[in-house]
Amino acid sequence: MPRECITIQAGQCGNQVGCKFWESALREHAAAASGTRYPAFDDALSSFFRNVDTRYTPPREIKAGNCSVPIQCLKARAVLIDMEEGVVNQLLKGPLSELFDEKQYITDNSGSGNNWAQGHEFYGPKYSDAILEKVRHEAESCHSLQSFFMLHSLGGGTGSGVGSYVLELLNDMYPKVHRFCTSIFPNAEDDDVITSPYNSLLSMAVLAEHADCVLPLENQALLDIIQKKESWDAKAEAGQRLPTSRGGSKVRPGKPFDEMNGIAANLLLHLTSSMRFEGTLNVDLNEITTNLVPFPRLHFLVSSMAPYSSSLLSG
């Protein structure tokens, strides 16, 4: 029986990570189906995607099958939220544009100003009905909704403020559906948003109260992974010792956000692989919270991935 997950992308960072996630998910399922003659819409693919027949108005949902249901038009089980239009518009005009339609995104044109209160107290209530309607539309297309995945950062205004508000809405409207959050924490040392510590602190209170499981990631840790990988590759090519990221010069100037987002996307993808694909060691997502969360508020789980590879960095 398929178990579906709805992904909610809040803010600039959340939508950029989401873009890498959908790219990786499509590649992973394409690789899994490489031995078949025609791509089929099976239970594994239905976890994150809907299959619709666009020959009808409105488009009709096509239920998943073993290997007999062909893919007509895939739509992501996602809701995109951002109080600026730039990132969402870029996503809708890019190669992944066919995965989304007008019923799946909410944007504004003024932004949250890197202010948690602006997102939580103004934009959250302003768009609460629209958000619930879009979530309801995605939930009604699910056969057995298992969880919500929130992708957001805690440093900005929309990801922290609106993301926190959406998490509260989900707890009220869907209390029995698990809520997983992949939260990107800002760098405490050299973050360029002066309000990010306050945004993070206010968001932490909501995450502790309303999330079932939080997978925290930190910008500097993601950057260290990339720089260490590049340093190892450079050593292998040049046969000499090069400085690493901590305590030495950086391998590459600037922050490669695209590769950092790829690591965050792969975390979510690998977390759900045992649920989507058949295997003897399959683990349901509900078992993660059952086995690893001793008390309701102690649900911040430290994650790790190995080995580091170019596919991990590229997403």
UniProtKB/TrEMBL annotation:
Upper taxonomic lineage: Eukaryota, Viridiplantae, Streptophyta, Embryophyta, Marchantiophyta
Q: Which InterPro entries match?
A: Epsilon_tubulin (IPR004057), Tub_FtsZ_C (IPR008280), Tubulin (IPR000217), Tubulin/FtsZ_GTPase_sf (IPR036525), Tubulin_CS (IPR017975), Tubulin_FtsZ_GTPase (IPR003008)
What PANTHER family does the database record attribute to this sequence?
Answer: TUBULIN (PTHR11588)
Family membership: Belongs to the tubulin family.
Q: Which organism is it from?
A: Marchantia polymorpha
Domain Tubulin/FtsZ GTPase residue range list? 67-279
Q: Where is this region: Disordered?
A: 236-256
Keyword Manganese in record: no
Molecular functions (GO terms): GTP binding
Name of this chain's protein = Tubulin/FtsZ GTPase domain-containing protein
According to its UniProt record, what is one Pfam family this protein matches?
Tubulin
Q: Which UniProt keywords apply?
A: GTP-binding, Microtubule, Nucleotide-binding
UniProt record, GO biological process: microtubule-based process
Query: One GO term of the cellular component aspect?
Result: microtubule
